[in-house]
Each structure stands twice: as C-alpha cells, then as structure tokens.
C-alpha cells in the first residue's frame, strides 16, 4: 500500500511542478476553477485517445506496435497512431473549453490552457505506466515524458493564440494557425516517439539532443509570450473594430 502511494505521488509530482512553473509566468492569473476544468478536460482527452487507439488497433491490426517494427511502419505508427491521435484529442479539449472562454483575454492565456490540458492527459498516462513499470519508470517519465507533453502543448497554445488574434483582426490566416496548432505538436511528438521506439544507438543520441532543443525552445516561447503586453487579444479586437468602423464611415 505504501509503495502504491509513493508511485501515485511520483506520477503526480512532475505534473504539479510543471503546472506551477507555467502558472507562475502568467501576469494575470487564470481562475482556479477554469484550470481544474482544463485539467479534467485533459483527463477526458486521455480517455478519448484510449478509445480511438482501441478502434484503430482493432480495425487496422497490421499497424499495431510490435517490438521489431521499424522504417515506414514505425513512422506510420508513431506519427499517426500515437502522436496525431493524442495531440488531436488534446486540441479538441483545449479548443472547446478555452478558445471562446470569457477569461481568455491575453496571448499567454492559451499557453496556460493548453498546458493544463496536457497535464491532465500526462497524469493519467503517468499512472498507467508507473503502476505497471514501478519506481524507475516514474523517475524517467517525470524527467522526460511529462516535460515533453508540456513542451508540445506550449506550441499548441502559441499557434491557437495566433489563430485568435487573426480571427479578431479578420485575417485569413486563422485557419493556417489552427492547422499549425495541431500539426506542429504532432510532428514534435512524432519525432519524440519515433526516436524513442527506434532500436539503434544513433537514434538514442538524436533523442537526447532533440528533447534538449525542444525543452529550450518551449521555455523560450513561454518567456517571450508571458512578457507580451497585457490584453493583447482585447487590444487586437479593439483595433479591428476601429478599422471596421472607419471603413463603414
């Protein structure tokens, strides 16, 4: 019982720590109720992922994972059966809970929202792996897997914010940024999975190089986005409204 409790704490600890780091960068804090809702949305997105993965494995068993998988088969599995399914599930939860939320009034807000969705997802995934793999898996996932979920979520939130700004200013680039908010996290997640599933030393070295670059870029994006002027989206809306009003006059 004590061992299971320790595993539970180890599965939750990196989620709390990374959530605090992202939350602390927010100049105007988001309501706790909304953050809890997002976290629960992340848990639901994990359930959606499990359901879709089950259907894919049932109807397309030839693309299900096996230890000797490599090349094109591994590429299809990691990028489409894992990464795309997970990131699309998280995108759906992020978009429907927060994109039109009244609290969403700053550029950095969407990064917070996307990260908290990813933390709910990562916590459930952590529990599944940690209770099966034990203490060593808990440490590895806390250092690598959870930060990767958070890092790709940063880019999802970043592109969703660009889409919102484009929408409020009536730019045609909204659809492009919405697609980027799915494609960029999927590609990053796919590279991560492909390298970790590949059974050769060269990919192992690339894997560690990749996650270091990913973490650095994500952290830089968090710093830049959190320092953007307050109420960016609100001002963008005002600017767009004034422009529209001038044209009508």
Structure overview:
With 249 residues, the chain is an all-alpha fold. It contains eight helices and no strands. Helix 4 runs antiparallel to helix 5 (135-168) and helix 5 crosses helix 7 (201-226). The longest helix is centred in the middle third of the chain and has 34 residues, at 135-168.
Summarize the structure.
This protein has 249 residues and is an all-alpha fold. It has helices at 2-24, 32-59, 71-99, 109-133, 135-168, 174-197, 201-226, 232-248.
Number of strands: 0
Q: Would you tell me the structural class of the helices and strands?
A: mainly alpha
Report the average pLDDT across residues: 91
Shape: globular
Q: Unreliable runs, pLDDT <50, ≥5 residues?
A: 238-249
Output the helix-strand order: HHHHHHHH
Number of helices: 8
- Sheet with most strands: none
What is the secondary structure topology, with strand pairs?
Elements (H helix, E strand, L loop, with lengths): L1 H23 L7 H28 L11 H29 L9 H25 L1 H34 L5 H24 L3 H26 L5 H17 L1
Helix pairs in contact: 1-4, 1-5, 2-3, 2-4, 3-4, 3-6, 4-5, 5-6, 5-7, 5-8, 6-7
Task: From the structure above, extract its key features.
8 helices, mainly alpha, 249 residues, disordered C terminus, globular, single chain
